[in-house]
Write a structure and sequence with these properties.
The protein folds into 2 domains: 1-218, no CATH class; 220-326, no CATH class. Helix 10 packs across helix 11. By secondary structure, it is mostly helical. It contains 13 helices and no strands.
């Protein structure tokens, strides 16, 4: 390529990549500035990188990923905490999987599932590497890291000038939650990874289709959990009903993960019929907000997804599919 053409091409390749990397870096570092709200906001870290792939192609996406990785790794090393590297790898691997697989024309369920699995695998590898480096067991390292995060959360509450009794109740509640989280760690990691990958993919698709027609794809409201996976749910329920100790918690982890998959299917059923009946956008928004804010509604959707396996609530194969998932 002649030098003149290369000089004109570089800004078009690197400027969007740098912008995506910068936004991802800001989202990654939000928890350092907002300990409570930032812990939720930072889950959007893969979004700008995945969007760079969907809207501008693999070249821009890969450049954005490299820039974000270099900048975030340098910042994490300067800050020092090992946990920073753990989350950095998790989000970068998820963003890479969402981006690379998202532009390959694979089904949304494969993209989301593979991105969640890749991020989980990267997290486990980082945990194993950390346990070797610090010469402690992986479980001990995870427990130490989680307890450190809980302590940071308690300290954040202490800065709010709460009443002593209220603060004591919060500390006791967090301690109880911490014990449950440690036992449900594998299931929580899988469930959170699926939800985070799904939300980032959904947002990237919605924003990306406005920036580039290449970002469009198959509707998400046709999603169905593979029927044979229902045996994992049955096994999990059996372990919880009949088992004790580690067997009970194994079942709880299985039920948690399968509950997320059937929640996705239940939400797809609701979205399918809302769109098929041409429900106004305000009604659809109200339904989605209710799902996000009310855990009982989420449980009801998971049950709906489970029954859809046998009742075919969307009449798939009998009715024309909805043309949009969002």
């Amino acid at each position: 390529m002649p030098a003149a053409l290369m000089s004109r091409a570089l800004p078009g390749e690197w400027l969007p990549a740098a912008a995506a990397a910068s936004v991802a870096l800001v989202l990654f570092t939000v928890p350092w500035m907002l300990p409570l709200a930032g812990s939720v906001i930072t889950f959007a870290s893969p979004l700008p990188l995945a969007l760079a792939y969907l809207a501008r192609g693999k070249g821009t996406g890969r450049k954005a990923l490299i820039l974000a990785a270099v900048a975030a790794l340098a910042l994490s090393m300067a800050a020092g905490p090992p946990g920073g590297s753990y989350y950095l790898v998790y989000f970068l691997v998820m963003a890479a999987a969402l981006g690379e697989l998202g532009v390959m024309g694979l089904s949304p369920s494969w993209v989301v599932g593979s991105a969640a699995a890749a991020a989980m695998a990267a997290s486990v590898l980082v945990l194993l590497a950390g346990s070797l480096a610090y010469e402690v067991g992986p479980w001990t390292l995870w427990k130490t890291q989680w307890q450190g995060e809980m302590a940071a959360m308690v300290q954040a509450y202490r800065t709010m000038d709460l009443e002593p009794e209220t603060l004591r109740q919060l500390e006791e509640g967090l301690a109880a939650v911490g014990r449950i989280v440690l036992r449900l760690a594998p299931g929580i990691l899988a469930a959170v990874s699926l939800v985070v990958a799904w939300l980032n993919f959904l947002a990237a698709r919605r924003i990306g289709r406005r920036l580039s027609p290449q970002a469009d794809g198959a509707p998400l409201n046709l999603y169905r959990t593979p029927e044979r996976l229902v045996w994992l749910l049955i096994a999990g329920g059996g372990f919880m009903a009949l088992g004790e100790g580690w067997l009970f918690w194994l079942g709880a982890n299985l039920v948690l993960v399968m509950g997320v998959l059937y929640f996705f299917q239940g939400l797809a059923v609701v979205d399918f019929w809302l769109r098929r009946k041409n429900a106004p956008i305000l009604l659809r928004t109200a339904v989605y907000l209710t799902v996000a804010l009310e855990i009982y509604v989420a449980g009801l959707l998971a049950a709906t997804g489970l029954f859809d396996m046998w009742l075919n609530l969307r009449r798939l194969g009998q009715a024309k599919p909805s043309g949009s998932e969002e």
